[in-house]
Structure formats: C-alpha cells, structure tokens
User: Which sequence fits this backbone?
C-alpha cells in the first residue's frame, strides 16, 4: 500500500483500489486552484498504475464531501482569472472522466457547487444518507463553472437542473436519489465500506478492458445520435474478441471456473 500526501488531498493506493480524499477540513474541503492541481496530479499518478482497477473519491471528515469551489479564493478574482479557473477545473474533471477505470464518488456530506460538479464527473455516485447536494452559485451572483449546467442537466434532465440551478436550493440524499443525481445511498458509517465493496467487486470480477469499453461508450454515447453510438458499440464489441480477457472469460465459464482477467 502507498500513501501520498499532497497539500490538499491524500492519495492511497492499495491495488487494485485507489482512494483520493480531498483534505481541507478547515473549509469543508472547498476546492482552491491549488486543490485542483493536486487532484490533477493524483489522477496522473493513478493513470500510471496498471494495477489500479477502480478509484474512490471522497472528502475528509464526516461533514463535507466538498462544499464548493473556495469562495475566499474566488471573491476578488478578475474575469480573466475566473475564466482560467473554470477552464482548468473543466480540464481536470475531464481528466478524471478519462481515466480508463471506474471512479466511484463516496459523497460523505455537503456536495455543493463545485463539490456537486466533482461528484457528477465520477462514474457512480454513492452518497451518505446525511449528504446534502446543491448548485448554490446563483446565491453568490455566479453560475456553476465546473460543468454544473451541463452534467446536471444530462444527469437529471433539464427540468430538475433548472429547479436546482435557478433556486440554488439544497436537497438531501433521498431527493438526490429520487431525481437520479445519486445512484445509491447508505448510512454514513457504512458509505466508504460500501464504496470499497463495489470497487472491489468490479476490480475482481469484471474484465478491465470490457469495463473501460462500457465506460467510454456510455460517456460518449450520451452526446451523439443513437445510430452512431450503436455503431461504436458494434465495433467495440468486435474489438474485444481480440483480447485475452474475452478468451479467458468464455473459457472459464465453459470450464466452470473463476476467470483470471489480465486486462490484455
Ligand atoms: N469556500 C470557502 N470556505 C468555505 C466554503 C467554500 N465553498 N464552504 C465552507 N467554508 C468554510 C466556512 O467559511 C467556515 O470557515 P470559518 O470556520 O473560517 O468560518 C468553515 O468552512 C465551516 O463552514 P460553516 O461554518 O459555514 O459551516 P456550516 O455547517 O454552518 O455550513 C455550509 C455549512 C452550508 C456548507 C456552508 O459552509 C456554506 O454554505 N458553504 C458555501 C457553499 C457554497 O456556496 N458553495 C458553492 C461555492 S461556488 C462554486 O462552487 C462554484 C464552482 C465553479 C467555480 C468556477 C471557477 C470560476
């Protein structure tokens, strides 16, 4: 197991799992520009590791996942600096989305503004029953700037996205689950354990190239027409028949044994 302490987060790698914990408890894990750079470094470190099969992203403490972008760091910035911060935030979240392994958000408390946007850039969003979600930017005179208007609308539909972004209201985990913002909810005490259970299940039972292919197809398919997306599915399906994992998976089934996938 390896642990890397960045200034604003911790990265623990215990292959096949990696866990990123945003660690700025004094500001409820708010995202400063330096935190986004640390996050990008952690993502790059994970990308280097062939033995990591799933990532968990959470916040330090039991109160907040991430309470938003750091308002103190944003209060006096210029439009040019705001543009740079938002653009960089988008790039980092795209790097997170581009990891070939599933990223599971374990939302352990407030996920507001940039925190909600960070959680939505993950593949699967698990939340504590005590979690609180919202895009409160309009209450600060700004709008979501890390993809909130876009990922939220794609995730929960334009109606719910309008309700949340126009009012800035907070919703609890049950409401987040009802509208499809959260995928599953658990008591806070068992959230991390459940996230690890899911990550381990995917890591141990599922063929890595196949999981990566599902991830790519679902992510890109949402933004293109159905016929084109289905055509990508057909060619990706066919390509997997060039993998050792396909031969191993099918042989193991026929021989009634557990498959040993290598991601090759
Ligand atoms: N930024 C900076 N500091 C914060 C933030 C934040 N987002 N959230 C909380 N803190 C700080 C508080 O100021 C407080 O510090 P101190 O102890 O020094 O007073 C400490 O964390 C604890 O917070 P509270 O005392 O407020 O705790 P409460 O339990 O009373 O309230 C809340 C918790 C409801 C979460 C409250 O802290 C809150 O409303 N926070 C702000 C939430 C918010 O508005 N988030 C959205 C920010 S904007 C954004 O995310 C834009 C994203 C796109 C950026 C684009 C780049 C240009």
Assistant:
């Amino acid at each position: 197991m390896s642990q890397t302490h960045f200034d604003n987060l911790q990265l623990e790698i215990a292959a096949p799992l990696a866990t990123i914990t945003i660690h700025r408890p004094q500001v409820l894990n708010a995202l400063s520009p330096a935190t986004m750079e640390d996050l990008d470094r952690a993502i790059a470190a994970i990308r280097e590791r062939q033995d990591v099969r799933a990532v968990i992203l959470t916040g330090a403490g039991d109160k907040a996942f991430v309470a938003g972008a750091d308002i103190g760091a944003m209060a006096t910035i210029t439009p040019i600096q705001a543009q740079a911060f938002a653009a960089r935030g988008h790039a980092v979240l795209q790097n997170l989305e581009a990891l070939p392994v599933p990223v599971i958000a374990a939302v352990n408390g407030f996920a507001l503004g940039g925190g909600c946007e960070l959680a939505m850039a993950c593949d699967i969003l698990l939340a504590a029953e005590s979690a609180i979600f919202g895009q409160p930017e309009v209450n600060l005179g700004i709008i979501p700037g890390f993809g909130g208007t876009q990922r939220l609308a794609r995730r929960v539909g334009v109606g719910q996205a309008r309700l949340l972004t126009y009012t800035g209201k907070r919703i609890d985990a049950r409401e987040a689950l009802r509208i499809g913002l959260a995928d599953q909810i658990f008591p806070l005490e068992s959230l991390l354990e459940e996230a690890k259970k899911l990550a381990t299940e995917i890591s141990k039972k599922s063929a890595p190239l196949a999981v990566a292919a599902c991830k790519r197809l679902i992510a890109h398919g949402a933004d293109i027409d159905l016929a084109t997306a289905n055509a990508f599915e057909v060619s990706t399906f066919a390509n997997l028949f060039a993998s050792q994992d396909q031969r191993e998976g099918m042989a193991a089934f026929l021989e009634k044994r557990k498959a040993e996938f290598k991601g090759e």
